[in-house]
């Protein structure tokens, strides 16, 4: 494999002409508003697998004004971050569906040498993990001290909130189905129902219109 510089790119070219990859050399003087993410990308006439995010080249990753993840805005944070990652084709890194590469490959002489595509993939992942951590507040970061990859960061955060929201959903739904009109006016009673439905919707467990009608029929005659 030949390695050389061309127009600020490190180019890797198989000597048999079967493939060529490049990654941009990013200077420390780049725009301070951008965080750079590099990975390998084929630059010859062949077309890489469009589903292989590790063969795409992201030259720069602009800083985005996302909300800081705290204990009460997980779903909003998750939506914003996923949209950004999907926009750059990087969601496979955090979802654990990225194609992986071996750390070493055989050169033309049969010797085991470092796989530069793997190194570029690792660099991309480390930079992405760093960016994810920058979108998380201190009270959540304490749970992520052992995270070594973007997948570690994402899966730890998801698991942290999964158990919390499971309990919250159970409590809210029990309250929803236990509502009594009693001495409340119809307006006050419906406002309580709507408030519970809105809260469930906000944490990703919405109540359909049909279910709300069933709740009304079930609860309206309770004292």
Task: Note down, in words, how this protein is organized.
It comes from Gossypium arboreum. Pfam families: Retrotran_gag_2. This is Retrovirus-related Pol polyprotein from transposon TNT 1-94. The strands form 3 sheets. The protein has a 4-stranded antiparallel β-sheet, covered by helices on one side. Strands 4-6 form a two-stranded antiparallel ribbon. α3 crosses α5. It has 223 residues and is of the alpha+beta class. It is built from 7 helices and 8 strands, in the order ββββββααββααααα. It folds into 2 domains: 2-156, no CATH class; 178-219, no CATH class. β1 (2-6) and β2 form a beta hairpin. 44% of the residues lie in helices and 12% in strands.
Write a concise keyword list for the protein shown above.
4-stranded antiparallel sheet; 44% helix; two-stranded antiparallel sheet; 223 residues; disordered N terminus; alpha+beta; Retrovirus-related Pol polyprotein from transposon TNT 1-94; 7 helices; 2 domains; 8 strands
Give a brief rundown of this model.
The chain has 223 residues and is α+β, with helices and mostly antiparallel strands. Helix content is 44%, strand content 12%. It has 7 helices and 8 strands; from the N terminus they run ββββββααββααααα.
- Uncertain regions spanning at least 5 consecutive residues: 1-11, 16-23, 25-51
Helical fraction equals: 40-55%
Based on secondary structure, the structural category is alpha+beta
- Rg estimate, integer Å: 25 Å
Layout of helices and strands:
Elements: E1 2-6, E2 9-13, E3 20-24, E4 34-35, E5 41-42, E6 61-62, H1 74-88, H2 91-95, E7 104-106, E8 112-114, H3 116-134, H4 138-141, H5 150-177, H6 186-202, H7 209-219
Antiparallel strand pairs: 1-2, 2-3, 3-5, 4-6, 7-8
Helix pairs in contact: 3-5, 5-6
């Amino acid at each position: 494999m030949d390695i050389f510089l061309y127009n600020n790119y490190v180019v890797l070219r198989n000597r048999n002409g079967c493939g060529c990859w490049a990654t941009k050399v990013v200077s420390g003087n780049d725009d301070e508003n951008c965080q750079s993410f590099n990975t390998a990308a084929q630059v010859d006439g062949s077309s890489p697998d469009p589903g292989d995010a590790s063969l795409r080249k992201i030259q720069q990753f602009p800083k985005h004004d996302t909300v800081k993840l705290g204990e009460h805005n997980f779903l909003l944070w998750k939506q914003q971050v996923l949209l950004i990652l999907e926009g750059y084709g990087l969601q496979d890194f955090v979802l654990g569906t990225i194609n992986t590469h071996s750390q070493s490959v055989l050169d033309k002489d049969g010797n085991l040498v470092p796989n530069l595509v793997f190194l570029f993939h690792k660099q991309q992942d480390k930079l992405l993990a760093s960016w994810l951590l920058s979108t998380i507040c201190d009270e959540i970061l304490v749970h992520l001290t052992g995270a070594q990859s973007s997948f570690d960061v994402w899966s730890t955060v998801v698991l942290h909130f999964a158990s919390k929201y499971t309990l919250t959903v159970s409590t809210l739904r029990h309250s929803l189905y236990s509502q009594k009109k009693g001495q409340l006016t119809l307006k006050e009673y419906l406002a309580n129902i709507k408030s519970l439905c809105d809260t469930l919707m906000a944490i990703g467990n919405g109540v359909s219109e049909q279910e709300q009608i069933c709740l009304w029929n079930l609860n309206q005659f309770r004292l």
